[in-house]
UniProtKB/TrEMBL annotation:
Pfam families: EAL, SBP_bac_3. Signal peptide: none annotated. It comes from Iodidimonas gelatinilytica. GO terms for molecular function: cyclic-guanylate-specific phosphodiesterase activity. This is EAL domain-containing protein. PANTHER family: CYCLIC DI-GMP PHOSPHODIESTERASE PDEF, SIGNALING PROTEIN YKOW. Residues 457-713 form the EAL domain. The keyword Transmembrane applies. The chain crosses the membrane at residues 237-257. Keywords: Membrane, Transmembrane, Transmembrane helix.
Amino acid sequence: MAPVIIGFDRNYAPFEWQDDNGQPQGFFVDLGRAVVKNSGREAHYVTDTWPGLVGRLERGDIDILPMLVSKYRTERFQFSRPFYYLTHSLFAAPGQQGLTGIHDIAGHVVAVEKRSYAHDLLLESDFSITIFETEGTLEALQAVSDGHADLAMVTSAVGMFLLAKYELDLKSYGTPFWPVDYAFAMRKDRDDLAQWFNLSFAETLSEGHYNEIYLNWGTYLDPSTAWSSGNRISDQMAFAAFLIGAALAFAIGAFFWRHQRNFFWQTANFVASQRRGKIDGTDKIVDAGETTAKPQPGEPDGAKFTSSFPLRPEFLIKAERALAGRDHSEDCWEFALLKLAEYEDVSRLHGGKAAEHLVYKLANRLLAGSFKAYGYYGRGIFSVLSDRPILRLGRQALLDPVDLDEHDVGSSIQCGLSIVPAASVNLDGIAQQAETALAQCLTRRRTWLMYHADMVPDPMDAKIVRAFRRDEIEGLRAVYQPQIDLKSGCIIGLEALARWEHPEFGQVPPAKFIPLLEQAGLSDRVADKMLAEICAMVASLPPPWAHLTVSINFSVQDLSDPDMPSKFSRYFARYGVKPTQIIAELTETAFATDPETLKTALTLLQKKGMQISIDDFGTGFSSLSYLSSFPADEVKIDRHFVSRMLDSQKDRAIIRSTVKLAHDLGLFVVAEGAEDEATLAALIEEGCDRVQGYVIAKPMNRQDLGVFLSDYQPAAVHQPS
């Protein structure tokens, strides 16, 4: 059989690089060598620049190349089982302003390695950037350091390693993004090669060689020991927490299953400490090969957490073997993920060894549970497969907080559970269900949750976010609902409302797409579109209606954008609109999100002459006395109170007190959702200033609005006697 040829990057440390003797070194290199050795096949190894390597793979000059997996690449290559994952980061000179994440790269010169994952995505994206192509990751960083580019977009771990090694005066900005699988790639026409490699790779994993290689490189892969500079990327669980807060539970589940292949940074330190036979002076981890240990001070009785405690790959293999050998007439088994909820806080505040103590104690607790399989995913997360209901085995004992008396700290435990049906032998879907349940525990602040189908979000959510990322927002438009003055009956303003009729999705209600875009940081797309359309509409109003104001809904993200005030000015100047004609609306709950930033932004807008409105008042937890510290001109009473005021004395009392307090603070009061004459009369009686609702008109497009305004006659408004 001909030797297999594997290619590696010359300078992609700490994962692969070429040493002074021209030989490839690194974590990925040793893993590739282990796979080949395990099969008894001969191999040759070559190094080159990354663009050169991709070209060699395409031509067939090399057989195998480790690379990040992407949709574009899967169309051209076939891949092995993923074995690691990396994120990307932005690197720029210290003191860079306004660079908080990938959404801020517009207008910059971005250095990126040719034919890299980031390069492919940037070429397909609609970012308004200038791409500065380089031959390697180091060259991309040096381009920024030398002033040829504003920032570099490279993989986080490699970027940080190279900064320290070459003492480059750069830093990373924002949260790492694009979590991507790493796998071995082969040409599409090499099925024989892929079959051989995948079989040998599976054997390498099952025999524990991956864990050994990972431990050998642990000190290089761990930023706390490998990087001498003060810059460190966020660890992988910090990144997962970011996704949980900004994305959906279903996405977090997918993240744990598909992208957590590196077992997190401190896994290596932790397991390595086991092999050394110690964790520190208080707890004793027994050496490899020992089965029991005498209790030590502060150590749980019967501690048996040996170096054989499985990491994720070994756990999955053992769990699937246990499922394959089960009696299918047995009751359903259970799969669980348990997380030390305060692991990151303890690690940050009290050090890594205190966090390792937490892991140690929970591990011993699991060892006492006689489970079918158990494993450690890293960063305080354990996995368990049980042939009995897990919580019935001792719910209190299993989920009780873990305390460290010597540090006076501890951590609660959160658990996501899923049922393993009697006929199931595959953990893919089961594990993802447990991960989804754990993600829900984190977001709901629950101790444990059993997975159920309602936890999975609508698949349309991801499509909506993707459409906005790609600027595929055909059919997004504004509709307008008139407001009348309750004393004169005259129309004095309009509220602009976003509506979206997508060619593929159909009618998508704002309550569906607006929250998704806010979570994804894309609400500015709606704001920009709406602001341009509304300013054009206002500029076209005929003279009799040139006095109308138009209210526009904004999110805190929109108004916290440092560029927002100048953006308003540009639109006003372009369309010849007066700032006094535009009212910025924010929901009441938005005022509690980032009060200082929001107060600054609103003050700037008010200085420009714009008005500020507090929308949906009554649905949050703040009060008018609290909100009086913010610049505001009007309060809009939420439609739920208005729609019930004729039948509910409580709702009517809320409206009455809101009107009085608002007037005392010098604010106008607008009532939303008035649908009949009786409600209109009641609002007049309670002293409301303005009203909008179906009793006047439904929201309408620009053309229908023109017809409505041309035909409108002020209604007779009957004041209470």
